[in-house]
């Protein structure tokens, strides 16, 4: 559906960045942020629902984009600065 919409507007997906993270470590980060900052959307229950939704709806697209040669994977377990730099570099690559 996204491809058709973009095509109708003269656009296309030309790069997909997948940020690789360890689910358990990500849960620990979210839980810590919830405890320290009290953000309602960072509680473990909400995180689990989001992760489930990711595996249902988004993860199945990974092989499709990989087959098209437009998928770039970035290690998301580093510092914010390192991950941001890796994403920036990935987006600057040519497909």
TrEMBL record:
<keyword id="KW-0808">Transferase</keyword>
<keyword id="KW-0545">Nucleotide biosynthesis</keyword>
<comment type="subunit">
    <text>Monomer.</text>
</comment>
<dbReference type="InterPro" id="IPR000850">
    <property type="entry name" value="Adenylat/UMP-CMP_kin"/>
</dbReference>
<comment type="similarity">
    <text>Belongs to the adenylate kinase family.</text>
</comment>
<keyword id="KW-0418">Kinase</keyword>
<protein>
    <recommendedName>
        <fullName>Adenylate kinase</fullName>
        <ecNumber>2.7.4.3</ecNumber>
    </recommendedName>
</protein>
<dbReference type="InterPro" id="IPR027417">
    <property type="entry name" value="P-loop_NTPase"/>
</dbReference>
<dbReference type="Pfam" id="PF00406">
    <property type="entry name" value="ADK"/>
</dbReference>
<keyword id="KW-0547">Nucleotide-binding</keyword>
<dbReference type="GO" id="GO:0004017">
    <property type="term" value="F:AMP kinase activity"/>
</dbReference>
<dbReference type="GO" id="GO:0005524">
    <property type="term" value="F:ATP binding"/>
</dbReference>
<dbReference type="GO" id="GO:0005737">
    <property type="term" value="C:cytoplasm"/>
</dbReference>
<keyword id="KW-0067">ATP-binding</keyword>
């Amino acid at each position: 559906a996204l491809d058709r919409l973009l095509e109708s507007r003269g656009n296309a997906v030309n790069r997909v960045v997948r940020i690789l993270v360890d689910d358990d470590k990500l849960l620990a980060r979210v839980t810590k942020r919830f405890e320290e900052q009290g953000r309602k959307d960072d509680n473990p229950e909400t995180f689990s629902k989001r992760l489930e939704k990711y595996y249902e709806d988004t993860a199945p697209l990974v092989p499709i984009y990989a087959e098209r040669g437009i998928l770039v994977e970035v290690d998301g377990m580093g510092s914010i600065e390192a991950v941001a730099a890796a994403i920036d570099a990935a987006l600057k690559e040519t497909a």
